[in-house]
Amino acid sequence: MASIEKRSTKRDGIHFRVRWQLGGSRTGAWQSETFKQKAQALTFKLAVEACEHHWPENWIRGFGWAPSPDEQPVRDEPVLFAEYALRFVTSLSGSEERTRHDYERDLKNHIVPTFGGLDLCDESQAFDRTTVSTWVNDLHHGVPDPDKPRT
Fold first, then answer.
1. Are 87 and 117 members of one domain?
2. Distance of CA 124 to CAs 69, 83, 127, 133, 138, Å?
3. Which residues have CB under 8 Å from 146's CB, separation 6+?
4. Residue 112 predicted with pLDDT over 60
5. Rounded Cα distance, 81 and 121, in Å
6. How many domains are there within the chain?
7. Among 43, 86, 101, 124, which is most buried by a count of CB atoms within 10 Å?
8. 53 part of a folded domain
9. Is the sign of the CA dihedral 94, 99, 100, 106 positive or negative?
10. Residue among 77, 81, 78 at smallest CA distance from 132
């Protein structure tokens, strides 16, 4: 049987942990998931018990329920790799200004020319092993970027 434990930490405050043994047996490995609200923990506990003390289908550990394909938001505009990567580097915390500057430079010079126009939400444009391997080999062998001829 799954249980809910009320826990308190200085960092996170009060939270609720659902614990159970995998498969419901005494020898099953202990499993747990943590929630900020008791209602969420209770819902998850009931789902675990309904799945015979296994992880519920479509549950992503530490994230929650995976959205079904018909719940996926429809985007009018693409999410371009270049914009996402540069925004990520700009928002880095705990790093020196010089480090962020170097990351931005490397992104702009080496990664964005190849991958910058890819839409991260379009599965047909996903990074595949062949494209990345070719890009790495080109960098290793000093192949110039065709969009930036050497002068």
1. yes
2. 16, 19, 9, 18, 23
3. none
4. yes
5. 10
6. 2
7. 86
8. yes
9. negative
10. 81
Rounded to an integer, the average pLDDT of 108-123 is: 85
Whole-angstrom distance, CA of residue 106 vs CA of residue 89? 11
The string over 99-124, giving b where at least 16 C-beta atoms fall within 10 Å of a residue's C-beta and e elsewhere, is eeeebeeebeeebbbbbbebebeeee
pLDDT band for position 138 (cuts 50, 70, 90): confident
Does 123 reside within a domain?
yes
Q: Which two tokens stand for residue 27?
A: 């020898």
State the residue range of the domain holding 91. Answer: 81-141
Same domain, 45 and 11: yes
> Half-sphere exposure of 118 toward its Cβ, with a 13 Å CA cutoff?
18
Q: What is the pTM of this model?
A: 0.47
Element holding 95 (H helix, E strand):
none
Please give the Cα distance from 48 to 57 (Å, whole number): 9
